[in-house]
Amino acid sequence: MVGRDVRSPAGGLANAAEPRGAQVASRAQAPRRMRSRKPPHPLEHHPSVRAVIAAAPPLAELASRLGSRADAGSLVGTLAIACGDLADGFAAPPDSRKRIAAHHRAWIAVRELDRAVTAAARRRLAPAEVVRRAQRAIDRADVLIGALLPA
Q: pLDDT, tens digit, for every residue of 16-65?
Protein backbone atom coordinates (compact mmCIF):
# COMPACT_ATOMS: atom_id res chain seq x y z
CA MET A 1 0.00 0.00 0.00
CA VAL A 2 1.32 3.37 -0.90
CA GLY A 3 0.73 5.97 1.76
CA ARG A 4 0.55 9.68 1.44
CA ASP A 5 3.22 11.87 2.96
CA VAL A 6 2.13 14.42 5.51
CA ARG A 7 4.07 16.85 7.65
CA SER A 8 4.76 15.64 11.16
CA PRO A 9 4.62 18.01 14.14
CA ALA A 10 8.41 17.94 14.20
CA GLY A 11 8.46 19.33 10.68
CA GLY A 12 9.53 16.14 8.85
CA LEU A 13 7.49 13.95 6.52
CA ALA A 14 5.60 10.93 7.84
CA ASN A 15 4.15 8.18 5.68
CA ALA A 16 0.54 7.43 6.66
CA ALA A 17 0.87 3.80 5.43
CA GLU A 18 3.50 2.93 8.05
CA PRO A 19 2.24 2.07 11.55
CA ARG A 20 4.29 4.71 13.34
CA GLY A 21 3.83 7.08 10.43
CA ALA A 22 0.05 6.74 10.75
CA GLN A 23 0.19 7.91 14.36
CA VAL A 24 2.32 10.87 13.48
CA ALA A 25 0.15 11.63 10.45
CA SER A 26 -3.05 11.58 12.50
CA ARG A 27 -1.53 13.96 15.04
CA ALA A 28 -0.38 16.24 12.23
CA GLN A 29 -3.87 16.36 10.71
CA ALA A 30 -5.83 16.64 13.94
CA PRO A 31 -6.96 20.17 14.79
CA ARG A 32 -4.93 21.72 17.54
CA ARG A 33 -6.82 21.91 20.78
CA MET A 34 -7.48 25.28 22.21
CA ARG A 35 -5.16 26.07 25.04
CA SER A 36 -6.89 25.83 28.33
CA ARG A 37 -6.94 29.15 30.11
CA LYS A 38 -7.51 29.61 33.78
CA PRO A 39 -11.03 30.79 34.52
CA PRO A 40 -11.37 34.54 35.04
CA HIS A 41 -11.74 35.93 38.52
CA PRO A 42 -15.36 36.80 39.36
CA LEU A 43 -14.50 40.51 39.56
CA GLU A 44 -12.79 40.59 36.17
CA HIS A 45 -16.08 40.89 34.31
CA HIS A 46 -16.64 44.36 35.84
CA PRO A 47 -15.15 47.04 33.55
CA SER A 48 -14.41 49.32 36.49
CA VAL A 49 -12.25 46.67 38.19
CA ARG A 50 -10.42 45.96 34.93
CA ALA A 51 -9.79 49.70 34.50
CA VAL A 52 -8.34 50.03 38.01
CA ILE A 53 -6.11 46.99 37.44
CA ALA A 54 -5.04 48.37 34.05
CA ALA A 55 -4.09 51.66 35.71
CA ALA A 56 -1.53 49.93 37.94
CA PRO A 57 1.41 49.72 35.46
CA PRO A 58 1.26 53.37 34.29
CA LEU A 59 0.79 54.56 37.86
CA ALA A 60 3.68 52.40 39.11
CA GLU A 61 5.89 53.79 36.36
CA LEU A 62 4.96 57.33 37.38
CA ALA A 63 5.67 56.49 41.02
CA SER A 64 9.10 55.15 40.10
CA ARG A 65 9.85 58.31 38.10
CA LEU A 66 8.81 60.48 41.04
CA GLY A 67 11.46 58.78 43.14
CA SER A 68 11.46 59.19 46.90
CA ARG A 69 8.87 61.95 47.05
CA ALA A 70 5.99 61.46 49.46
CA ASP A 71 3.48 61.17 46.58
CA ALA A 72 5.30 58.27 44.97
CA GLY A 73 4.66 55.72 47.70
CA SER A 74 1.03 56.61 48.17
CA LEU A 75 0.05 56.36 44.49
CA VAL A 76 0.11 52.58 44.21
CA GLY A 77 -1.23 52.13 47.74
CA THR A 78 -4.20 54.36 47.04
CA LEU A 79 -4.91 52.40 43.86
CA ALA A 80 -4.84 49.14 45.83
CA ILE A 81 -7.28 50.58 48.37
CA ALA A 82 -9.59 51.70 45.56
CA CYS A 83 -9.52 48.19 44.12
CA GLY A 84 -10.37 46.76 47.55
CA ASP A 85 -13.25 49.19 47.92
CA LEU A 86 -14.59 48.14 44.53
CA ALA A 87 -14.41 44.48 45.56
CA ASP A 88 -16.16 45.30 48.83
CA GLY A 89 -18.90 47.08 46.91
CA PHE A 90 -19.45 44.21 44.50
CA ALA A 91 -19.64 41.79 47.44
CA ALA A 92 -22.56 43.76 48.87
CA PRO A 93 -26.12 43.33 47.59
CA PRO A 94 -27.05 45.45 44.55
CA ASP A 95 -28.36 48.94 45.35
CA SER A 96 -27.55 48.55 49.04
CA ARG A 97 -26.12 51.38 51.12
CA LYS A 98 -22.96 49.34 51.71
CA ARG A 99 -22.40 48.87 47.97
CA ILE A 100 -22.95 52.55 47.18
CA ALA A 101 -20.68 53.65 50.05
CA ALA A 102 -17.88 51.28 48.98
CA HIS A 103 -18.05 52.40 45.36
CA HIS A 104 -18.10 56.02 46.50
CA ARG A 105 -14.92 55.41 48.57
CA ALA A 106 -13.28 53.87 45.49
CA TRP A 107 -14.29 56.85 43.37
CA ILE A 108 -12.90 59.29 45.97
CA ALA A 109 -9.59 57.37 46.01
CA VAL A 110 -9.36 57.55 42.23
CA ARG A 111 -10.13 61.28 42.32
CA GLU A 112 -7.24 61.71 44.80
CA LEU A 113 -5.00 59.87 42.35
CA ASP A 114 -6.20 62.14 39.57
CA ARG A 115 -5.23 65.20 41.62
CA ALA A 116 -1.80 63.72 42.41
CA VAL A 117 -1.11 62.93 38.74
CA THR A 118 -2.25 66.42 37.74
CA ALA A 119 0.08 67.94 40.34
CA ALA A 120 2.98 65.85 39.02
CA ALA A 121 2.24 67.09 35.51
CA ARG A 122 1.95 70.71 36.59
CA ARG A 123 5.21 70.61 38.56
CA ARG A 124 6.91 68.61 35.76
CA LEU A 125 8.14 65.95 38.15
CA ALA A 126 8.11 63.20 35.50
CA PRO A 127 8.39 62.96 31.71
CA ALA A 128 5.26 64.13 29.91
CA GLU A 129 4.62 60.76 28.23
CA VAL A 130 4.67 58.90 31.56
CA VAL A 131 2.29 61.43 33.11
CA ARG A 132 0.01 61.26 30.06
CA ARG A 133 -0.30 57.45 30.27
CA ALA A 134 -1.02 57.57 34.00
CA GLN A 135 -3.57 60.38 33.53
CA ARG A 136 -5.37 58.48 30.78
CA ALA A 137 -5.56 55.29 32.88
CA ILE A 138 -6.83 57.14 35.94
CA ASP A 139 -9.38 59.08 33.88
CA ARG A 140 -10.75 55.82 32.46
CA ALA A 141 -11.04 54.29 35.93
CA ASP A 142 -12.67 57.49 37.20
CA VAL A 143 -15.35 57.40 34.51
CA LEU A 144 -16.12 53.70 34.94
CA ILE A 145 -16.31 53.90 38.75
CA GLY A 146 -18.40 57.07 38.54
CA ALA A 147 -20.88 55.17 36.37
CA LEU A 148 -21.49 52.79 39.29
CA LEU A 149 -22.73 55.60 41.53
CA PRO A 150 -26.39 56.64 41.57
CA ALA A 151 -27.19 59.84 39.78
A: 555 555 555 555 555 555 566 777 766 777 899 999 999 999 999 999 99
Task: For 128, list phi and psi in degrees, rounded to 5.
Answer: -60, -40
Instruction: Please name each of the domains of the chain with its CATH number.
Output: 1-37 (no CATH), 42-146 (1.20.1440)
pLDDT tens digits, one per residue of 48-59: 999 999 999 999
**How far is CA 132 from its chain centroid?**
18
Distances from the Cα of 13 to the Cαs of 24, 28, 32, 134, 141, in angstroms? 9, 10, 18, 52, 53
User: Distance between CA 85 and CA 64 in Å, rounded?
Assistant: 24
Q: How far is CA 143 from CA 51, 108, 140, in A?
A: 9, 12, 5
Contact 97, 150 (CB under 8 A): no
